[in-house]
Amino acid sequence: NGRVLVERQNHAAVHGDDGSVREEGTSDMVTVQDASGQLVSESACHAETGSYDDYRALFGAMVQAVEANDAERLATLVEFPLRVNRDGKKPLKIANAAALRKQYAKVFAGATRQAILDADPAAVFCRDPGAMIGHGVVWARKETGRTALFVVNPR
Questions:
Q1: For the segment 55-80, what is each residue's pLDDT rounded down to a tens digit?
Q2: Model's pTM, two decimal places?
Q3: d(Cα 155, Cα 144) in Å, to the nearest integer?
């Protein structure tokens, strides 16, 4: 078990000779350390593309849904179509909740399921325009005000 440090920073960017502020926002600087205190990752989650709190809550709910094998609950956390990347093959696109329920056992099984269960939902790595946990096994993003899963990278 490691440690996750989150520092919230407010920022404004001044552009032009008139000193007008053209960019404002909040960023969460996320530092993940392993049990020995060694740096695992550093990233910045921007409020516009999903705050640390947004992603932490989503990934926590996702881990609980996968742990319970609750495809119905998981479907509420997904932005459809859900893209499932496959080595050397065209990605699988899961169009809706009904299709996810049918494909759940295939997509969220074996090593992929274990990678999700082993992932610490707090160990978020943000990279515009989204965030991941578990070394990229799942990715999420915030669009139209909703934070949701949009990619699975099976193991």
A1: 999 999 999 999 999 999 999 999 99
A2: 0.85
A3: 30
